[in-house]
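To close the chapter, one final illustration. This time we ask the reader to focus less on the individual chains and more on the assembly as a whole: which components sit near each other, and how the overall shape emerges from the parts.
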Amino acid sequence: MFRHRLAVTVSAASILTLAVAGCGGTTKESTDNSTAGAQAPASANPNAALKEGLKIAYLPKQLNNPYSDVETSGGEEAVKELKGEYKKVGPNDASASSQVSYINTLIQQQQDVIVIAANDPNAVCPSLNQARAAKIKVVTFDSDASKDCRDIFINQATTEGIGQSLAKMALEQAGANGGDIAVLSATPNATNQNSWIAVMKTELAKPEYSKLKLVKIAYGNDDDQKSFQEAQGLMQSYPNLKVIVAPTTVGIAAAARYIGSSSYKGKVAVTGLGLPNQMRQYVKDGTVKKFSLWNPADIGYLAAYAGASLSSGQITGAEGDKFKAGKLGDYTVGKDGEVVLGPPTEFTAANIDQFNF
Amino acid sequence: MSETSSGVSGRPDLKRFATWDTAIIVLTVLVLVVASVVVDNFGTSRNFTFMVLDLMPILLIALPMTFIIVTGEIDLSVASTLGLTSSLMGWFWNHNLSIEMIIPLCILIGAVAGVLNGFLITGLGLPSLAVTIGTLALYRGLALVVLGDSAVADFPFNYTGWVTGTLGDGSIPNVLIPIIALAVVFGIVLHATPIGRSLYAIGANAQAAHFSGIRVARTKFWLYVVSGAVCGLVGVLWTLRYSSARADNGAGLELAVVAAVLLGGVSIFGGKGSLPGVIAGVVLLTALQNALRLEDVSGQALNIVTGALLVLSVLLPNIVTTVRGNWQRRRLRQSAAR
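The assembled structure is written out below.
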């Protein structure tokens, strides 16, 4: 009896739903989602002075993440130079919606600039647009929000910049006669790594790189042990290898650990993208001569100057707007409100002790 | 427990918890008033809208959760059901179903998730804590299967805008309508109908309830179905509020819900509690977090405050009961010695 009635109820509900469905309605295809920007384009005044006392708030993906701590430390330095009020708030978890309550709080506190690394490009959008409606400037860093709901995105590096840097370091370290090189990447379908490797291949096709031959792309899956074994495998298959290029922080550290403890030390160069703290010992013991990465502190630093320039009316975030960013120099806003930090910072034995991240 | 000594007034438990409810309601009003005066930007209409949006998912799920905890059971799968319906909503939308169809479908799927919980608990007689911890993982896992790491974001603006918007040009958020409507319905059912009274009876003593003619298993079964359906609705509202269907939506929300329900004076052992208390508990938690955030208190400290409140809400009624019991026993002993 009980089961029977349940079955009737559920099937009745299903039929009802399907009946409603038959009537058509708002579907993905029938919806025009070209949402217009929330703000009317204001005109920029390039000669406006940078305002003092601006309240600039940083909202990283989550608190207590060492990498974003370095980024925001750069922001704190810049806000101090600008004589503004620095603040950092954020959730304990990097979930998509947890940032929204913090954005709302910053709106209530009438901050001048919100610098945010979005956990979800869309979930933060309605709130960010409310902030912009309340005359708060929005700068994104690390991971962008949808471009309809922020003024400027600080891009740490372009795909081209990284790919070119990888190719250049490989050439420098392969020695005068060049030779075989191999790539130790993350996973076979890692979007970032694949696009960097694609640029690197384009570079290698150029005449100045003719001495280099890319013999293999290995995948360590961003797993320390797997990357270590892959580095080992590369040396067994290609004993004449001159350079291992690892465009992932896990891969470069594992490769450096293997080469540094093997007979190939000093004969095979390891380079790529790495974290100074992880790579310091290999740079000091000579296994690694040079590697690169964007400097996270500069990202936060640049974001503060971009926000202050927006808030002072120097720029509006339109393509071609120019502003000064303290010690980093001059910047121009690119397409879609993107500002590129610049070529990655190169780390060598000479400068590695200046960096702590 | 001091069943015999307090039996004089007729409905001792109701009376005692009426005082706990009153205490929480008074405390909530106090926090709201003090925060409006002390905390800058707290008492504005915009902040009111923000707070209502923040408390919406917790309050809506707390309604069926109160019923379930009153019967002495628990449903920890609520946030995962929310996540599952949110991902399915994105999946359906990507497959070009109309939003007018997706919304009832999501509520229905939530109800089906509740049917599974209800069947395992009442049909097979498994403990609800174990079952819903299992489905907590299961539904979240299914959500990840449906949508993976991706997010669906291009929902129509007339729906997403409605959820975040306000009535007319005023400061009353649109979502307050479903909140109030559901709260009134749940409140009437719990406090003014035989169904509501039977929930307390089940929670106080399931066996006695069974022998007095209450269909214990069936009642519990339907509570889980209702809980699932409400989670489906909240999944839809959550997705529209953040314009983002994701598998991880609402992760961890079940703890906030249970915390608010217990803070509102519902006994985790069942049989006690009231809906006004629970609503006050939700408002208290949300308002406190909002005010502390406006005062730049860090996220970690916020968690400490919430955790401490929860522990106190469980501890205080117990201390009161123990102290009262001791005092009555001593009085009995004194009168016996005399």
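Chain B touches chain A through 53 residues (CB under 8 Å). Chain B has one domain: 42-324. With these observations in hand, you are ready for the problems at the end of the chapter.
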